[in-house]
Structures are given as C-alpha cells and as structure tokens.
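Side project, low priority. Logging it here so it doesn't get lost.
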Amino acid sequence: MVAGSLIGIVLLAALLLGAMRSNMLEDRKLAARFAVESAWGVLAAFEKRAVAGELTQEEARKQAIATLRTLRYNGEDYFWINDFGPRMVMHPTKPELEGKDLSGSKDPNGKHLFVEFVAVAKANGAGFVDYMWPRPGADAPVDKVSYVRAFEPWGWIIGSGIYVDDVNAVLLRQAAWVALIVLVVAAVIGIPGVRLGRSIAARLRDAGVHARAISDGVLDRSIVAGNRDEIGHLLMSLEQMRIDLKERTERDQAVAAENLRIRTALDFVNRNVRIANADGDVIYANATMMKTLIDIEGDVRTSVPQFSVARILGSNIAMLCNNPAFVRKSEPHGTGQRSELVIGQRTFEVITTPIPGESGQRIGIVAEWTERTQEISVEREVEDMIAAAVSGDFTHRIKVDDKAGFFKTLAVSMNELVAVVASGLEDTARVLNAISRGVLTEKIERDYAGTFGQLKNDTNTTVDKLQEVIGRIRDSTEAINTAAREIAAGNSDLSSRTEEQAGSLEETASSMEELNATVKQNAESALKANELGRQSNEAVMRGAETVKRVVLTMSDIQDSSRKIADIIGVIDSIAFQTNILALNAAVEAARAGEQGRGFAVVASEVRTLAQRSAQAAKEIKGLIADSVERVDGGAKLVAEAGATMEQVVDSFR
C-alpha cells in the first residue's frame, strides 16, 4: 500500500511535470508565432513598396531576403523561407540548402518536415510543426517546434522555430527534485504509511486521473475534494491549480490574441512604431520601423559601431534616443518626451509615451518616429526663396518634382505667389522706368487681383495724371513763352520810348539854353530899348511867341512824362504777373517731378527775367519821376518867364 502511495505520488509529480512542460512549450510556441508574424509583416511591407512602384518585384524580394537573413531573436533563433515546391529560398544558418528541392528532406524520425510545412500552410495558412533539427553550429538534431505562415503574393512560406531540448533539461532538473522529495516522503511514511496508504490509494488514483487530465490540458472538469484530510487538501489544491491554470490559460490566450491583433495591425501601419520595456530594451518594432532602421543602419554605425538591426530586439534604445551624436533637441510632451534625431541625411521627430501598468507604474515605453526630412528640406527652400525675395531676387523657385501631397501643394503655391509678386513688380518697374525716360504711354495691361490689382489701377491712374499735368505744364509754358515775348516787346518799346524821352529832354535842355540866351538878349535889348525901340518891340513879340511855344512844349513834356510813368507802372505790373506765372510754373514743374525739371529751369529763368524787368522798370520809373519833377520845375520857370514876357509886352504896349 505504501508502495502504491509512493507510486501515486510519483505519478502525480510526473503529471504535474507534464503540465509544466506543456505550459513551457506553449510559451515557446507563442514566442515563435509572434516572431513569424512580425517577419511576415516585413515581407508585406516590401511587397507593398513593390506594388506602389518604389521597388521592382525582384528588388523587393532581394531586400526582404537580406533583411530576414540577419534578423534574430532570443539570441540565436532565426527565420527561413521556402516555397511551395518545397524549395529553399533562404536559410541563414545553412545557406547550402538555398535553391535545393527539399521534398526528400527527413528528420531522424522519418518526418518529411518541409512537405509538412507546405501541407500546414496550404490547409490553414499557418500552423505549428514538430520535428528534429540541429542547432546553429551543431550537427546533432534536437527537438524543435516551428511556426510557419504562407505569404501568398510571392508563393513563399516563412517560418521560425524554437528548440525544446532545453525544456526537457529543465524538466529533468525538476524531476530530480521530485525524486528527492519522494525518497524523503518514503522515509517518513515507513510502515505507518503502508496502513495509511491502503486507505488513500483509491483517492490518490482519483487525484492521478485529475492530474493527468490537467496535464492533457483538460481544464473544464471540476474536482470534488470530499473529506478534508490530506488527500482532500491535495484534491482541493488540484482543483485550485486547475482553476488557476484555466484562468491563466484563458487570460494568456486572450492577451496573446489581442497582442497578435495589435502586432499585426501595427505591422501594417505606415508609421514607425517601437515598444521597449521599463528598462528601455526593445521588445517590438513594426515592419515600417524595421525598414527605417535598415535604411539608417550604416549612418548609425558611424557613431555606434555595435549597432545592428538584426539584434535590435533586446537592445537598449539609449544608443539612439539618448545619443548626443543624433539628438538635436528634446522637450517634454504631455507625459512623455519629444525629441529630434538627425541621423545621416535624415531627420526624425520621436515622440515617446510611457505605458502605465494596472497600478500606474511604468511598465514600458512606446515611441513613434515621424520622418521630417522632406518637411525640413521644404522649410529651408522656403526660407531661401523668401530671403532671396527680400533682397530683390524673385528668380528662386522651390523644386516640385521631388515632392508629393501637402509639400507639393505648398511648393506650387509658394512658386505661384513669388511669380505673381515678380510679375507685378516687373510691370510696375517697367512703367516707372518709362516715366523716368519721359515716356508716358506705358501702362500695366495684365490682370491682377487684390493689392496688385489696386497697384495696377494706381499706377495707370498716375500715368494718366502725369499726362494731364504735363499737358497743363505745356500750356502754361506756352503762355509763359507768349508772356515772355510780350515782355520782350514791351521792354523793346520801353527802350524806344526811353530813347525818345531822352531826345525830348535834350530838346528841352536846348530850349532852356535858348531861353536863357533870349532872356539875356532881352535884358540887353531892354538896356538898348531906347535905341532899338521898334527892333526891341518886335524882338519882345518874338520872345513872347517863343516863350508861349516853350510853355506849350513844357506842357507836352509834362504829359509825356506822366504817360511814361504810366507805361512804367504797366511794365511793373507785367513783371509782377510774370513773376506770379513763373512761380506757378515752378510749382507745376515740382509736382511733375523728374519730368518737370526742364520746365522748372525755364520757369526760374523767366522769373529771374521778370524780377530784372521789374527792377529796371523801378529804376526807370525813378528816373522818369525825377525827370517829371525837373520838367515841372522847368515848366514853372517857363510859366513865370511867360508871365514876365507878357508884362514886358504889356509894358511895351
């Protein structure tokens, strides 16, 4: 009975070890499945680029093979590719198999493993296959479980497996511990145990049945403990283990399914996504992220020689995201961080967000890499074009052929903006240049909207106004020329009259001299009156006649002097009006700007001439006034002489 009890305990331990092995294998198989799904996403990403025209189908296949050849996880686990032949497409540890027909390949147990891979892929699209295969660098086959999935677009089957011989080693260590425990129990039980064993053998057999069911994965059968003795506690423990295993399995399956959906979805996202654990070690990178890392691998190695995309899973992210050689700026962003990485010729914006656990602690970090290379290139091109425009160069344009989407629309819009500005300024400059050359027939003919439309209207209106002003200036100039000619004629007439006046003054002076001679002669004649009676009387009569004529002449001279003074007043008025016209002409010329400069010179000369004429008229007026004053004095003297002569005549009579 004791032996039976011990055997039951051993069987129970064996069943528990079997359940443990089953769970460990499930974990390994789940890891292999996740790895293959990620690698399948890499193939899908390259195939998508080929469909989009970025690569040829041949280039896409070659790059996909090169990428998967170097990928590793768990240190030494790898991926291989075969077709539905089956023929080996790529095997990283046994490249001698590539291109060979594998339909006859068997493991030591006689299983045609590659034929099995094809059968599973055709039947279900994906699945697990057990077989034996040597580890990398070894020749002896060991137990292995692989997960394969068909990639229909290229007729490939991608697979990866995990070796399970280490699982058996772990179980052997556990079995040794169980054996030791059994020996201890056997020593303790002894003879009392024989008696007790008989009573519990049946219940132990029941416990063994339940344990075997649990090891087989049957977790939906409840276990009734019965009595609350040791066997009852054992059965209750088995029941609790069954419940825990069932909940754990269901939870793990749900998490695995959810993780699989998330991973598959992320692999088809066109954005770069990677996930790290709380220590910063990368545990996942989607297909787009893997492609980006492959593209920048060479540039990263210039600063981090040990960097390898093949070993990115498990590597710490600090080599990239905290490396001063790449980080240009970093700032808080929500609960995470926003950084800018410059790697080679490419610029990335990296936004990291912590992943909180159930209790709020950080259990990981998710990062999204957004490439801003083209955006920054466009920003620089826009800055260069604006700087050139500010300095007056409107010939710069942004390249359009190498851009797409928003950036292409932005480039086209900026080019159109600068073209419109350049066209508007060119038309305006052309019209202003024509105006500076005195050509007032140029106008802006092209259609513009907004401010440039207003500029066009204002420029054309300015040309029309200038034409009108220049016309008025031309009319004013002709009037000034006419006035100048009239002033010249007036000055000529004034000069002639002045000469005549000078002649009259000379005649007046001569007459005065004759008058003085006559007076002297009269005085002499008066002394000789007695001797020259009749001659004196006749002489006096002639003198009286002469004095009358002198009086009349002096009166005429007075009238002429007054008329000359009036003429000088008219000339002075004409000079004043001419000066006013010259001032108006100068004002109009100033309004005309550069085109009125010639007219301003003419107006200035006319004004100077008018001022000189006014000054000359003033001086002549002064001379005439003095002459008139002297003539008035002479006229008074002649009048007195005439009165005296009349008295003399009366006395002679």
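Brief comment: The mean pLDDT is 76.
Revisit when time allows.
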